[in-house]
């Protein structure tokens, strides 16, 4: 897996009807590094992330994730975590039980996975017994990121993770993403906050710079 | 302080503006079609309606009639509690509830309409209950029907009283649950062979009429009192009932019953206080989650246990009715934990996070529903066998084989997703039929066809043999395995297909 770049995109084109959103986009995220894509609303950041996550089929171009085609196989989703899509929650399960469920599905012992510490770090310690729909939008965002970072993975694809987070929350998440990179993980994110992207250790690039033959 | 704005001109303006957007004669056209529909359906089903309301050979005992009346009353009060009953349309709740208008005048039309509907429904139920007894004299029947209508309004008042106060609401719901259970218990006991005490006789019109008159006076006074107190109905209760009415309207208009199911599920969990706990570690991860969910549905499990006696009620009628009720009951029991499957089928975000294949997920998700359905079907069969409603002695073994079918049907139902309204409609001699809602409604129950060997044995009143049981077991095993194999894959996580 480490022999290949984490993400390799070339000649990617996507249109919505007659409106082109991505034109001949190229991007490489070397394994163990992070790239943050910036740009104004509607420029195609989320579309790019959705294509890399295999959640959207491009009109043209090739995408490789760790050398293979992104797909919907369990192996792919064991390596990749994305927050590109809005989260959903199981009915009748508390926030802590969601975390334990995900740990157990990945063979982690819930007691050793550091769930309690993660809840404290994300400021959700007092909400372990709450059901996710009862949380505020900012708390739900923290929970989504907590679950994404709790389970083992090789690549994180995050769409504007700083959204709905207060300044402390942004600093905390950025630090955790930096730790994730230090531990060998790869990161592809879209963001409007350069300060947050810089703190996360990701290299910042604009969508404009990714388009065209030279990209 | 803002002065109170008269409501009538505001409502008149809204009505006039809405009417301006309709074609001329559209309302009359809708009314014509509604009346035509009622007349046609009435003409087609008049024999069945007569059999329900006024059968030729009434068989209900006096005690059963009381139990049936209590059952209908409990169901009516339960429905009124779920609806509000004091409610507003969603636009009115948004624009007028916060406007400086008289709250009493704002809420009165809907309250009046609900009271009238409750009275009509109660009168129909009262007439039908009396029609199933030996009491056929016109005067007492008319008086009892009128009494039932007044009782319907009394139930509406009880629901209004409960709506304004959480303590009274909880108490009312408990009383309704108790009366419902007691009435069902009496009916089941009688169906199982218990002989109820004979009542002294039906009260004559001379007793019933003054009683109904006194009740009418009391209920009228209560209604006037309730109207005076309408303005004190808490906003959150009105908004909740407005949301309920809106969701019901949307579900009916869009032919999408899953919206109502989602609302019920959301409200159920929103009112629960949970404490994080851990399922047994040896259980596979999704079975463990469903185990937790089943444990948290204890009231539903108790009702399901009680419902194993319900097939006794239909055992005296058509064999096919009983043959259909049993697998359907198993499917409903299995549906206790399938909300998780519905979540995954609607949006596979969590399945991707779990990294399990669709086959692993579905196999694990079938386990707890299969246990629940098997237990339900086996208990129901054992009761039918023990009370002699079905001949032979091996029915409980057939119950064991029905469970996995009920589980597969419930899981398939949970995977259906939204109704597809883009499918081509079918033109039939009776009119156009939308295929989307039709296909959606049968997805799930269609798998119950796997229980055909058992259904045939029940419908033909044939004692099951070991061969019957072996055939059913093989059909169950092959059918459920085929469903899992052809609807999932080891190479994808998505449960939608």
Automatic annotation (TrEMBL), chain A:
Residues in ABC transporter domain copies: 7-214
| One Pfam family recorded for the sequence | ABC_tran
Q: Which residues form a coiled coil?
A: none
Nucleotide-binding among the record's keywords? yes
PROSITE patterns given in the database record: ABC_TRANSPORTER_1, ABC_TRANSPORTER_2
What InterPro entries has UniProt attached to this entry?
AAA+_ATPase, ABC_transporter-like_ATP-bd, ABC_transporter-like_CS, ABC_Transporter_VariousFunc, P-loop_NTPase
Keywords of the record, alphabetical order, are:
ATP-binding, Nucleotide-binding, Transport
MF-aspect GO terms: ATP binding; ATP hydrolysis activity
Name the record gives this protein: ATP-binding cassette domain-containing protein
The species this protein was found in: Actinoplanes aureus
From TrEMBL, chain B:
Q: Which residues form the signal peptide?
A: none
Instruction: Please provide an example of a Pfam family that matches this protein in its UniProt record.
Output: DUF6297
Q: The organism sits in which domain of life?
A: Bacteria
Q: What is this protein called?
A: Uncharacterized protein
Q: Which UniProt keywords apply?
A: Membrane, Transmembrane, Transmembrane helix
Residue intervals passing through the bilayer: 31-54, 60-80, 110-130, 142-163, 175-195, 207-227, 301-322, 393-411
